[in-house]
Amino acid sequence: MAPVFSYEPLPARFIRVIKLLPASRPTDALRCSVKHADLDRVAAQPYETLSYVWGEPTRRWPLDCNGKELLVTKNCHEALVNLRSRFFPRTLWIDAICINQAGTDEATAERNGQVAMMGEIYLKATRVLIWLGAPAQDATTSCLAMSDQGSGALKICKRHCKIGVATGMAPEYCRVEYPLENAVTHPLQSAASSRQMVRRDTNSGQFVRREGRLNC
Questions:
Q1: Which InterPro entries match (predicted)?
Q2: DSSP string of 154-190?
Q3: CA–CA distances in Å: residue 130 to residues 15, 35, 50
């Protein structure tokens, strides 16, 4: 039996990131290294964040962290398998792995401190990756729809914020009231497939959507 991974205490204003190691085959065991990173110096050590629905907590899959075993949920395991490169390591911040989830007082204090920095962690990431689960029917349509909606919303926001600057209104207070449907190529089909995607887990979907917005 492999030794169990244990967390080292974090200095103030530090986070953990994992370096997901490459593998030539999807069936290869997941391996990563865990290191501490200074949140005030992340430009020198860029990372991506992963947001996903945790899924069933009782079923756990092994992840090799620094040569020791850490158990993660099936959804987390699937996400890492799909995000893993064949050639290069990938630096990620994943809350379930990078924050000590133990029930001790020390772990609870750490979680409280990390949660307080959560917005900054997502904001300083180079990219937020959102994993909604293994591909299902209409998954391609749904992803294209979300991309369509996101691109349209970005164009609308940029246009309205420019208007706000010209009129002396601060951009952060600009309100977008232009119907988003006008920016979507196939609104009915897009809406239906998008709803199907984000409702895979109704208990956690809103947290995934919120985390995705933190990097905007």
A1: HET (IPR010730), HetReg/Transcr_Mod (IPR052895)
A2: HHHHHHHHHHHHHTT--GGG----S-GGGG-SSHHHH
A3: 20, 22, 6
